[in-house]
Design a protein that fits this description.
The chain is of the alpha/beta class. The protein is built from eight helices and seven strands, in the order E-E-E-E-H-H-H-H-H-H-H-E-E-H-E. The strands form two sheets. Strands 2-4-7-6-5 form a five-stranded mixed beta sheet. A two-stranded antiparallel ribbon has the order 1-3. It is elongated and about 85 Å long. It is a multi-pass membrane protein.
Length: about 350
């Protein structure tokens, strides 16, 4: 492809993230950096990287997750053995719920470790997507656990077995205390407010606490009134909690893998805000997607009227994306009015 004009690249670096990489390649694609452009126009590219500050929170997140994982795993084993010993499906179902939460906690730990690995030429975003793939697998496993619990509960409705309500309550009470301890560990050690992974793990632990409360309630009904149907009823309620969590996880991960626009971002508002920049006549090829939880990216082309300072347009666009929409990983191409892309994705 003949080159008529060498494009200038505006590179804005705001902080650094483990995925930072050098744009030193040379090719004829319109999104390249520091290369000869094939169109008869001058394009300006802005690439803004902004990293999250992990220096303080990363170690705290790891400690909080590790402590919560140890507590959750221990109580999961206790409830499973206790459920078999007392013949309580409610305890077994709650231990299944805790298994899913232990997997979620482990997933967050692995994701933190993998996120620290630098990007490579073959994996330019690093290993952030591992978190999404593992979360999808975890969500599918949750569906299987919930299906088994419902199947077993239906069988017990027809012929409710006798359950040791007193022992069941004692084990469930220990589980409740452990869940509250795990939640406290995540709150004190980790960044529950700002870190999506930690907040998700925290909500999982709170869901476990609700399951333990349900098991205690079933134990009271069986010990006080001999109403053994309470055990499968509570089990179904716990399975519904699991299904709700599973559906949320699967839906979110599939949306991310399909490169869907993040739910926290209004694409129409982003396009409108960029169009309002002085000198911009058209916004096209606007794509907003999620790399992993808490790491969104955006790329777009801005066509100008050719009258103003394109570098000023670029700086204003990057500022809007970061400050108004919190899109800190941005690639913006500013184009002159004579470019013709033909069919563009709008």
């Amino acid at each position: 492809m003949p080159s008529t004009r060498k494009e200038r690249t505006a590179m804005t670096s705001r902080g650094s993230r483990d995925h930072d990489h050098e744009h030193d390649h040379t090719h004829d694609h319109a999104h390249g950096h520091a290369h000869f452009h094939g169109h008869h126009h001058q394009a300006h590219h802005g690439h803004s990287h902004h990293g999250h500050s992990h220096e303080v929170s990363r170690e705290g997140n790891r400690k909080g997750l590790t402590l919560a994982l140890l507590i959750t795993g221990g109580i999961m084993v206790l409830e499973f053995i206790g459920g078999i010993a007392t013949n309580s499906l409610a305890l077994i179902s709650d231990s299944g719920h805790m298994l899913s939460d232990a997997a979620a906690l482990l997933l967050s730990l692995v994701a933190i470790r993998l996120a620290a690995r630098p990007a490579s030429h073959s994996k330019t975003y690093g290993f952030y997507r591992f978190e999404i793939l593992a979360a999808l697998f975890n969500g599918l496993v949750l569906f299987a656990i919930a299906a088994y619990i419902v199947w077993e509960a239906v069988r017990r409705f027809a012929e409710p077995p006798e359950v040791a309500g007193g022992a069941m309550m004692a084990i469930a009470a220990v589980g409740l205390l452990a869940n509250l301890a795990s939640a406290l560990a995540l709150m004190r050690q980790g960044d529950v407010k700002n870190n999506v992974n930690l907040r998700s793990a925290y909500l999982h632990v709170l869901g476990d606490a609700l399951g333990s409360v349900g098991a205690i309630a079933a134990g009271v009904l069986m010990a006080a009134f001999g109403w053994y149907a309470a055990d499968p009823i509570v089990s179904v309620l716990v399975s519904l909690l699991i299904l709700r969590s599973a559906w949320g996880v699967v839906r979110h991960t599939l949306h991310v893998l399909m490169e869907g626009t993040p739910l926290s971002v209004d694409r129409a508002r982003v396009q409108e805000a960029l169009t309002e920049i002085e000198g911009v006549t058209d916004v096209h090829d606007l794509h907003i997607w999620t790399i992993t939880s808490g790491f969104d990216a955006v790329s777009c082309h801005l066509r100008t009227d050719g009258q103003g300072d394109t570098q000023a347009v670029l700086r204003q666009a990057l500022k809007i994306l970061e400050e108004r929409f919190f899109l800190k990983h941005a690639t913006v191409q500013v184009e002159s009015p004579d470019i013709d892309h033909g069919d563009t994705c709008r």
